[in-house]
Amino acid sequence: MARVPRRRRLTDRRARPVNDWPLRFEAELVRLGVQPQRARQLSVETAAQAGEHAADPDGFFGPAHLYARHLVAELRAPLPDTRCPTGRVMLRLTGVGKRFRRRTVLTGVDLTVRGGEVAAIVGANGCGKSTLLRICAGLTTPTSGTVHRTRRVGFVPQDGGTAGWLTADEHFTLFGVAAGMTPRKARSTGTHLASLLAWRPGRTQPVQELSGGTRQKLNLILGELHGPDLLLLDEPYQGFDQGAYLDFWRQVRSWRDAGRAVVVVTHLLHELQHVDHVLDLGAAA
Ligand SMILES: Nc1ncnc2c1ncn2[C@@H]1O[C@H](COP(=O)(O)OP(=O)(O)OP(=O)(O)O)[C@@H](O)[C@H]1O
């Protein structure tokens, strides 16, 4: 094969558009054995993540080929029980499947999460992440398989479970009392948890007047208020600014250190370094 003259190669390099990072990333994923459709989806999601942080992917993730290798290694990391068991089993899914009418969304899903562990559920839009989380929470019945979960569960849905006309304090009271707390304890716990997310709820402000990110903070606090052993979080940081987002992952680490189990649905693949198990549901069925 004829060698490409040095000058020409340099020129080509300069001519390469700065935003071809996603293409190089996708090509490297395919080269590493990822299915083309999944590689495309990962590339789109990754570029979107960098966009959300107003950064270009090169600056945010580093060279495309290195990030592709890192990500493939993360996604292929063996699932459960590779770490020393850190606590009792809080959640065990065995052969879980779900069909909606004729549409099969989930097949043969296995996952074990112990106290002191964090699991991430990742995959394309529509592949069944939220459905699986609802199955974990006992809100949706699986078509097949078994689910064992600890009794004290906190569930944070993707779309808020809040009432616009109530204040944050009223939410703390309502949810806390339903979980067996006194109103006073519920309010003080809620206020404390809010402070960990750098939020001081107004005493009289109804939730409908809060920003989307702040409503999501409330949603997260309500899931955690009663001190559950297992936290099930469906993309709980939507609308968070950078500071709140970092606070959130700090919280996840502190829950884990306190021996709780956390399952989080996420599209933010660069956070996989913080988790013990990655359950990749792949492309939509
Ligand atoms: N109650 C339902 N009845 C019928 N179909 C449903 C129901 N709930 C979910 N689905 C379908 O199951 C599939 C998986 O939905 P799900 O919300 O679990 O996906 P997801 O991976 O969480 O998506 P996203 O990343 O967009 O949040 C979708 O095609 C959805 O339309």
Automatic annotation (TrEMBL):
It comes from the Bacteria. The keyword Electron transport does not apply. Residues 91-285 form the ABC transporter domain. InterPro entries: AAA+_ATPase, ABC_transporter-like_ATP-bd, P-loop_NTPase. SUPFAM superfamilies: P-loop containing nucleoside triphosphate hydrolases. Keywords: ATP-binding, Nucleotide-binding. Pfam families: ABC_tran (PF00005). This is ABC transporter domain-containing protein.
